[in-house]
């Protein structure tokens, strides 16, 4: 399905978007990737959503990526005898392992790992940071705190611990069960929550066994500090600004977002900017101007994808939310300033042959009348390298592997076409010309750039580039190969 913009849109599915008609309408409105939130819904409900997405994909003959977002460990306080208590600034409050119901003075925090890592002076954030506690003294089973920001604390509210690396695995037992289930279904991406270190990513990769690509959610200060190593271990990144804004000063989040997006682009790995992008559209058919500016900023930065969460999962206007994102993206990408920013932030090519080929393809497209860049890519690596270049012309990724075409639905500007395996470069050029014409990017009078690797169908062998006509008669009149 041809898009009029390059940035991709991720839409979360939920109660407001679980029928065939709605999921199809969301895809037609602009959703390229559907996110399945494993924090909500049974396996049977997830299975049904997966089935519907694949049916929409088949009916529209349009590759769709499915992203399964694992819940990660949830840190929560226990329950209160009165259901809730009002904590005032300056008051003392104790967290401990005692399972007794809480009161105005204390509550259970059933996570001994937290107490094992806490230090005097550490901060604890409750209920998305609305309540802040500072540790005055602590031990293996308690933390005596002072309330630095008061508020209402109630049953099972979430707890964030921003100042320490917790000795917790990113994958809980539920996550392991969910991972195996969704890999068995055939999802394309796994979003890994609570990442603190590269070892968390490697654990998930070992369990996935190549059945899905691994996307690390950056939502903790420890992940920001170890980002280079986490990026190296991951196939993609999600900048999860909601939790980052809780555990870090909100003023720190925008520069972190910009820095992480650039680092991802430099190594040709997809990056999603997520959380609260069009939050008001949960209840309103129109976004705020600030939200539109936020979406535009992520696009100007060169993000591969922007994401809707509750807006499409549980909101009253899911189609309008996707349409709004789509329209903002089209406007931004048609702005001359967008090209100036994207090209000014382009990194220098690396030393490999494939890097040189894709850089040359982009330069040819910018200096001649070329309608599209077509690349044959079995693993998807070449397509990602071309996407890193952010060319001014469409990218058409040709692959015989359906899984590759689906995973690339998350990558900037990439239009995927399933083709039969080819053994001769001339047939690769013919297939590219047909795809460019069929997608409406070229006519017989146009030229395209074709990249491929010899021998064919072997990942990592991109070593050839040709400027070719779209007229098949001219292609077959070329010198025999």
From TrEMBL:
Residues 355-467 form the Pyruvate kinase C-terminal domain. The keyword Chaperone does not apply. Residues 5-322 form the Pyruvate kinase barrel domain. Pathway: Carbohydrate degradation; glycolysis; pyruvate from D-glyceraldehyde 3-phosphate: step 5/5. Its EC number is 2.7.1.40. One of its GO terms (molecular function) is potassium ion binding. The keyword Phosphoprotein does not apply. This is Pyruvate kinase. It comes from Shimia isoporae.
């Amino acid at each position: 399905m041809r898009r009029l913009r390059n940035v991709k849109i991720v839409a979360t599915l939920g109660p407001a978007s679980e029928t065939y008609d709605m999921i199809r309408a969301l895809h037609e409105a602009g959703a390229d990737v559907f996110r399945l939130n494993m924090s909500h819904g049974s396996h049977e409900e997830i299975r049904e959503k997966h089935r519907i997405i694949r049916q929409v994909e088949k009916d529209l003959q349009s590759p769709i990526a499915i992203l399964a977002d694992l819940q990660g460990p949830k840190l929560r306080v226990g329950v209160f005898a009165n259901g809730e208590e009002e904590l005032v600034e300056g008051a003392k409050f104790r967290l401990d392992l005692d399972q007794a119901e809480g009161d105005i003075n204390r509550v259970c925090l059933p996570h001994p790992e937290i107490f094992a890592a806490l230090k005097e002076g550490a901060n604890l954030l409750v209920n998305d940071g609305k309540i802040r506690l500072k540790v005055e003294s602590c031990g293996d089973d308690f933390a005596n705190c002072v309330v630095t920001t008061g508020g209402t604390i109630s049953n099972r509210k979430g707890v964030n611990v921003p100042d320490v690396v917790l000795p917790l695995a990113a994958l809980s037992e539920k996550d392991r069960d969910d991972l195996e289930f969704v890999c068995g279904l055939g999802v394309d991406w796994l979003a890994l929550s609570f990442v603190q270190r590269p070892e968390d990513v490697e654990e998930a990769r070992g369990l996935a066994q190549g059945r899905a690509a691994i996307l690390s959610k950056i939502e903790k200060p420890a992940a920001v500090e170890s980002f280079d190593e986490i990026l190296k271990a991951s196939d993609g990144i999600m900048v999860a600004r909601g939790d980052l804004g809780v555990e870090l000063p909100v003023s720190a989040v925008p520069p972190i977002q910009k820095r992480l997006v650039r680092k991802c682009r430099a190594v040709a790995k997809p990056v999603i900017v997520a959380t609260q992008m069009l939050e008001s559209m949960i209840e309103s058919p129109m976004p705020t101007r600030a939200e539109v500016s936020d979406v535009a900023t992520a696009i100007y930065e060169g993000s591969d994808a922007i994401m809707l969460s509750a807006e499409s999962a549980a909101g009253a206007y899911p189609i309008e939310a996707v349409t709004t994102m789509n329209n903002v993206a089209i406007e931004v990408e048609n702005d001359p300033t967008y090209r100036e920013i994207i090209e000014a932030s382009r990194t220098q090519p690396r030393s490999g042959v494939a890097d040189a080929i894709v850089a040359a393809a982009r330069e040819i497209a910018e200096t001649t009348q070329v309608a599209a860049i077509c690349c044959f890519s079995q693993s998807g690596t070449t397509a990602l390298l071309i996407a890193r270049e952010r060319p001014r012309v469409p990218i058409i990724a040709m692959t015989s592997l359906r899984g590759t075409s689906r995973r690339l639905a998350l990558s900037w500007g990439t239009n995927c076409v399933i083709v039969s395996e080819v053994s001769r470069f001339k047939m690769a050029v013919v297939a590219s010309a047909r795809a460019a014409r069929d997608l409406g990017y070229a006519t017989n009078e146009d030229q395209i750039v074709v990249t491929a690797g010899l021998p064919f169908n072997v990942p990592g062998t991109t070593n050839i580039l040709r400027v070719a006509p779209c007229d098949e008669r001219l292609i077959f009149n070329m010198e025999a190969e």
